[in-house]
Design brief:
Elements lengths: L11 E2 L2 E2 L23 H8 L5 H28 L3 H12 L2 H9 L4 H21 L5 H18 L3 H14 L5 H11 L1 H10 L9 H5 L9 H7 L18 H22 L9 H5 L26 H27 L2 H13 L17 H18 L4 E2 L2 E2 L3 H18 L5 H6 L8 H9 L5 E5 L4 E2 L9 E2 L2 H4 L10 E3 L2 E3 L4 H11 L4 H6 L2 E7 L9 H5 L3 E5 L3 E5 L11 H43 L8
Parallel strand pairs: 5-10
Antiparallel strand pairs: 1-2, 3-4, 6-7, 8-9, 10-12, 11-12
């Protein structure tokens, strides 16, 4: 999937922008004019890029996220369904290889996929906490809580990811654990909650035009509901794989839903039709080395033993809640694209501060993926039981495990075939770019006070080196000073207004050929002209003639605004508060995963030590 991107160069595709180095500007901390939509993502990249090249850092995070979502889905299927390796691989593939991932890659939402990757892990850890209650050892609960905290922080790389993670955690963790879970979620969301409170930008009403512009889209032959049920339907038709724009989208959706449908009943009622199962296997649900191999139904647990195994009962509750969450995650965005749904959305964003975060309703289809992965895994086991057993001389030629494995191969092939153009960078669209040398020279030259204004007007560019798709202007992440952006988004032939009021004044001033003195009064110390990209220039030549040229080549030209530049930076107190919130988030992320890792390693070492004590000659057994 990421093959082409792993070469040298930088991710620059629609909303995705990576640069060699980023900086802790006010905007990176969420204290600029625009709503803090990329917090704490931008701050993390800014700090990390002081040590590792920013482009490499983004690629590593994206690759890790996709790997973790597959591993998490497999682990969720193992613990909640007690399935063997084949169905676990099916769950992993469904979670990785689907239209939702493809569309978000093409839209450039790599950091949202970090939150997406955390969902199966959060579902798993929340279920364990619910099952263990007060009877579990303190060390076990501490390790699980630490893992949950780390996952919530990882999902909190963006506000939307944080919302997704919080919903899953609060839904599954149980009443007893709700207060602590809510507190951990708030701590994990501290950077963008703090930035919203300090800047006030995210609390302003949003443009109601964004509701219709970002509503889920109906794909060919499917309608909106069918598109969402197939895990597609992103608002931007140009950010969809080619196979989702033809009749094949219907075929692929039917195949995916057929795989999911085979396991729905098993997920809702798993364990009720098992013929036999030892309660000892269910007791080992937390062990990663368990290999279920029941002659009747691999990995299942009978109802008769549920009272002895609280995890089994809670796993069933979690599975059912995940299924109903999946239904809501598909139906509600579909309703949001109807006439009255659009009206309700417009009412919310104009009257409820921060409700603009909900306008891209297709994002929430991510909540359906854990249930889809579970149902596909369970369906693989069900279909495996349908395969006839050949008996030769009274001996079965195919064990239940082998038949389940055969069904898994079939399921894996079908999942991959439903989206063939996800391979190799979503059909080659996901490829690295190389910035012209002028960008680095400009980045080094911007070293004095004053914000940066950019020309042509608008936030999106089409450079000769970035391909045919529009890309978000890399200047805000390339330069040491804040780059003013209006936040206006061109969507479906219209424009959705943003929150950057000062940026809008500056852009209008440049396009009208205003004075350099007025630019200085508005806090602008630099003007950057990006060549080779379409966009309005207006009468800006008149203004540029009043400025001091600093650098020029065919790709970028930099000008210095003369005179005294008015200060419009965030206050030192606000930067300290925002910095503290970011440090709190980073501490939660690092300490959560570190504690969980130490706890996991300790638990794995205990059985080994016990085994050595019971078998003194173990080391010489071979």
């Amino acid at each position: 999937m990421l093959g082409p991107l792993l070469g040298s160069g930088y991710l620059l595709l629609r909303d995705a922008v990576s640069t060699p180095r980023s900086y802790l500007t006010d905007s990176a901390l969420g204290l600029g004019d625009a709503a803090p939509r990329a917090v704490p993502q931008d701050a993390l990249i800014a700090v990390g890029s002081t040590v590792v090249d920013g482009g490499l850092l983004v690629k590593a995070m994206l690759l890790t996220a996709l790997w973790l979502v597959g591993w998490g889905a497999a682990s969720l299927a193992r613990d909640l369904l007690r399935v063997s390796l084949g169905p676990q691989l099916v769950a992993a593939t469904v979670a990785i290889w689907n239209p939702y991932v493809a569309e978000r890659l093409l839209q450039g939402h790599w950091s949202l996929l970090t939150g997406y990757a955390a969902l199966p892990w959060i579902a798993l850890l929340a279920t364990r906490l619910r099952a263990r209650g007060a009877t579990a050892a303190r060390a076990d609960r501490l390790g699980t809580w630490a893992g949950l905290a780390g996952c919530l922080a990882a999902a909190g790389l963006t506000p939307t990811g944080s919302l997704l993670a919080g919903l899953v955690a609060l839904l599954l963790v149980g009443k007893r654990n709700l207060p602590v879970t809510a507190a951990l979620w708030i701590l994990s969301a501290a950077p963008w909650l703090t930035a919203t409170a300090l800047s006030g930008a995210g609390a302003e009403p949003s443009d109601p035009a964004g509701i219709a512009a970002f509503a889920a889209r109906a794909e060919p032959w499917l309608g909106t509901l069918g598109s969402l049920a197939g895990l597609g339907g992103i608002w931007n038709s140009t950010a969809a794989p080619g196979s989702r724009t033809t009749f094949f989208a219907l075929v692929a959706t039917v195949l995916l839903l057929a795989l999911v449908a085979t396991g729905v009943r098993a997920v809702l009622d798993a364990g009720t039709d098992s013929k036999s199962r030892s309660g000892a296997a269910a007791h080992n649900l937390d062990r990663t080395d368990v290999r279920p191999d029941d002659p009747a139904e691999p990995g299942s647990v009978p109802d008769g033993e549920s009272s002895q195994d609280p995890m089994h009962d809670e796993a069933r509750v979690a599975r059912r809640r995940l299924v109903w969450l999946a239904v809501a995650a598909i139906v509600l965005p579909a309703l949001g694209a109807t006439g009255w749904g659009l009206s309700a959305g417009e009412f919310l964003v104009t009257r409820v501060p921060g409700a603009g975060l909900l306008r891209d309703t297709q994002k929430f289809v991510a909540l359906a993926v854990p249930a889809y992965a579970l149902c596909a895994a369970a369906g693989c086991r069900v279909v495996g039981r349908w395969i006839p057993t050949v008996v030769v001389d009274g001996v079965s030629a195919a064990s239940p495990r082998a038949r389940t494995g055969g069904a898994a191969v079939l399921f894996l092939a079908i999942v991959l075939l439903t989206l063939p153009d996800l391979a190799w960078g979503v059909g080659g669209a996901l490829r690295p770019v190389h910035y012209p040398a002028g960008w680095q020279r400009v980045a080094g030259a911007v070293d004095a006070p004053g914000d940066v204004a950019v020309l042509p007007g608008g936030m999106f560019r089409k450079f000769r080196y970035s391909g045919s798709a529009p890309v978000l202007d890399p200047a805000p992440r390339m330069l040491k000073r804040d780059v003013l952006q209006t936040g206006e988004l061109p969507v479906r032939g219209g424009v959705v207004s943003g929150e950057g009021e000062r940026a809008r004044k500056v852009e209008n001033l440049l396009l009208q050929g205003g004075s350099a003195n007025r630019l200085a009064e508005l806090g602008v110390g630099w003007v950057l002209v990006e060549g080779g990209t379409p966009g309005p220039m207006g009468e800006s030549k008149t203004t540029l003639a009043q400025l001091n040229p600093v650098y020029a080549d065919p790709d970028v030209q930099l000008y210095r605004v003369p005179g005294d530049i008015a200060a419009h930076d965030a206050s030192a107190a606000h930067r300290r508060l925002s910095g503290a919130a970011h440090l709190l988030w980073a501490a939660l992320l690092a300490s959560g995963f570190l504690t969980a890792a130490i706890h996991s390693a300790t638990r794995r070492s205990v059985p080994r030590e016990a085994e050595r004590e019971s078998h003194p000659d173990h080391d010489n057994a071979d």
